[in-house]
């Protein structure tokens, strides 16, 4: 199943949705989740602010949100649906300027970060943050063609299997329909 990308609240997009989809699919391959369905929303600050307020009770915009379908009560019913990643292009634009790199790079970083949240990674303490940052870098390298999904996937899948993330439970891969 592919990655689906849509936009909301934007007058223009500094990165084409097709590019975001392609990068997301490379990341999914690196995680050996090629058959998972991923939804990506590229939006403005007011849209992500409303989502952050309504779902996280934080009354401010943020850069990325992840809504996992395979966690919590009923998570085993998600089948091939991994979840949703929401990226604010307004915030990504500001962060890219602050960090001195292109907005496409920032969006790719945020997409990787959100995707890792969907598969159970978190950064509640220094150790988790180190692991998540390392895995984010690997996904960005795959998305940008610096590393092949095959090179990255063995390490990443092994790390996921160690339970070094939220709840200590590896996220299950969907069963193949073959």
Radius of gyration: 15 Å
Tally of individual domains:
1
| Proportion of residues in helical segments | 40-55%
Total helices: the number is 6
Q: Which structural class do you get from the secondary structure elements?
A: alpha/beta
What portion of residues belong to β-strands? Answer: 5-15%
Widest β-sheet, arrangement of strands = 1-2-4-3
CATH topology: Collagenase (Catalytic Domain)
Question: What is the makeup of the main sheet?
Answer: 4 strands, mixed
Give the end-to-end Cα distance, rounded to a whole number of Å: 13 Å
Average pLDDT number: 86
Per CATH, the superfamily is Metalloproteases ("zincins"), catalytic domain
The ordered H/E elements are: EHEHEEHHHH
Structural write-up:
The chain is an alpha/beta fold and about 180 residues long. The chain has one domain (about 5-170): Collagenase (Catalytic Domain). It has helices at about 15-30, 45-55, 90-100, 105-120, 125-145, 150-160; strands spanning about 5-10, 35-45, 65-70, 80-90. Helix 1 (about 15-30) crosses helix 4, helix 1 (about 15-30) packs across helix 6 (about 150-160) and helix 3 packs across helix 4 (about 105-120). The radius of gyration is 15 Å and the shape is globular.
Topology of helices and strands:
Layout: E1 3-8, H1 17-30, E2 37-43, H2 45-56, E3 64-68, E4 81-88, H3 89-99, H4 103-118, H5 126-143, H6 149-161
Parallel strand pairs: 1-2, 2-4
Antiparallel strand pairs: 3-4
Helix pairs in contact: 1-4, 1-5, 1-6, 3-4, 4-5
């Amino acid at each position: 199943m592919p990655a689906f990308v849509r936009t909301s609240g934007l007058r223009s997009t500094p990165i084409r949705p097709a590019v975001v989809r392609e990068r997301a699919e490379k990341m999914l391959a690196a995680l050996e989740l090629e058959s998972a369905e991923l939804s990506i929303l590229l939006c403005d600050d007011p849209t992500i602010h409303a989502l952050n307020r309504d779902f996280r009770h934080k009354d401010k915009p943020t850069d990325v949100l992840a809504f996992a379908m395979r966690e919590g009560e009923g998570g085993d019913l998600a089948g091939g649906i991994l979840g949703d990643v929401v990226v604010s292009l307004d915030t990504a634009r500001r962060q890219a300027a602050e960090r001195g790199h292109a907005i496409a790079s920032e969006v790719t970083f945020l997409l990787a970060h959100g995707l890792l949240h969907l598969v159970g990674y978190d950064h509640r303490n220094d150790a988790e943050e180190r692991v998540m940052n390392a895995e984010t870098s690997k996904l960005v390298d795959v998305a940008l063609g610096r590393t092949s999904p095959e090179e990255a996937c063995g390490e990443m899948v092994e790390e996921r299997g160690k339970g070094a993330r939220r709840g200590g439970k590896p996220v299950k891969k969907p069963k193949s329909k073959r």
